[in-house]
């Protein structure tokens, strides 16, 4: 039996969690060193140490300049666009996320009393190529072999669907966490789980509801005392904490009071649930619009939905449940912990990945109990089909209208992994180079899509207009893209400009640098 141990990691905006499959083939959450089932995604830098979790969160008011939180919203950004400096060192979003993953890995090893080598890490379904690559990098920097990146709603669907493979049903997964929002429609049929449509907004989450309260209290304080308490970092962190507590109270009580002290003065704001819901109506409307869009994309009506699966802590809010019940009469799944389902699903996927590796290599990595638990009635491994979250295209020249447009190579909602091949003619005779621009997005206008990469291929001399340039797109299970170009015998690869904070050659340096930081 191999020593390899795989876990699932929900790398969240506000909280993260780890899970594993036990000796009986059952998924279990891994408690952290503080005996908590979820770990706040907050880092406190203290000299050569990085403290991750509740202690860091509790110190966010007293030492705000040493704190990093909500780093997930910065994933995929280059270092010059986002970094934090501590002890004279600049940390990219991936390096900061790697410290959170390191904490989860260390806690898992302590709990399981075994080295953890492999992991599946989850991302919002609507994360783009750069954000997904950055997440893989974070896992690698933390010393893990990242088996796969899996969409959070897909992970939740796995956690829900593993023991329901005999019930054919269509499930609407509504995932509203601390920083991101995703909706996915999936079908469980004939022992298979298939994703049908997905949409979302990875800059919409619980923090936006917190900010509604933060801004309200700041306005009241400013009106009473003539100064803005948000300009002081410690005051802002304190108010964020109080706003979060107030929001949680309003999920179970009709009203709350938020008291904020700053500069020797204070303000008390009474807030009813009704008033809070009115002030955050624009946020719930955003969620509702995305739900309607994903139904249109799936070409479905609400009465096609059999169950609604609520994931993420924000689904505890009455206004969220009320909005969903107005859209659909389907029953809400209430037997799953919304904070833990994604990590559990990631652990299931990690085990499936290792079982597939067993099938390929013939080398046994896991126990017989696990193998039986993860096989369908006919003895085959459970099948999960995920789909692309974005369209992948190439920029072409329209001779009729004399303008650039985007041609879709792999359309949104295509089953993954996916490949596509197409041939295009060069725009004019005797062209010396063909420029291939790869983009991601649903628009036909290049300016409205995200540029992914550029390839400048040298062409042989004296080519006639329309000579073929062949493109091949490979989109793997992590939804990370590779593009190959062949132009009249000349071959090239598109260098995907992922805009992540770390170039491949910087990885070793980053791993070495993070190795000097003690994670607690």
Based on the model shown, name its key terms:
Nucleotidyltransferase, domain 5, alpha+beta, 3 domains, Substrate Binding Domain Of DNAk, Chain A, domain 1, 31% helix, seven-stranded mixed sheet, 520 residues, single chain, Actin, Chain A, domain 4, six-stranded mixed sheet
Give me the secondary-structure topology:
Elements: E1 6-10, E2 15-21, E3 27-30, E4 39-40, E5 43-46, E6 49-52, H1 54-58, E7 67-68, E8 84-86, E9 89-91, H2 93-112, E10 118-123, H3 129-141, E11 145-151, H4 152-161, E12 169-176, E13 181-189, E14 192-201, H5 206-225, H6 233-252, E15 255-262, E16 265-272, H7 273-279, H8 281-298, E17 307-311, H9 318-327, E18 332-333, H10 341-361, H11 368-373, E19 383-387, E20 392-398, E21 403-410, E22 415-416, E23 418-425, E24 433-440, E25 450-458, E26 468-475, E27 481-487, E28 490-493, E29 495-496, H12 507-515, E30 518-519
Parallel strand pairs: 1-10, 6-30, 10-11, 12-17, 14-19, 17-18
Antiparallel strand pairs: 1-2, 2-3, 2-4, 5-6, 5-7, 8-9, 12-13, 13-14, 15-16, 19-22, 20-21, 20-24, 23-26, 24-25, 25-29, 26-27, 27-28
Helix pairs in contact: 2-3, 4-10, 5-6
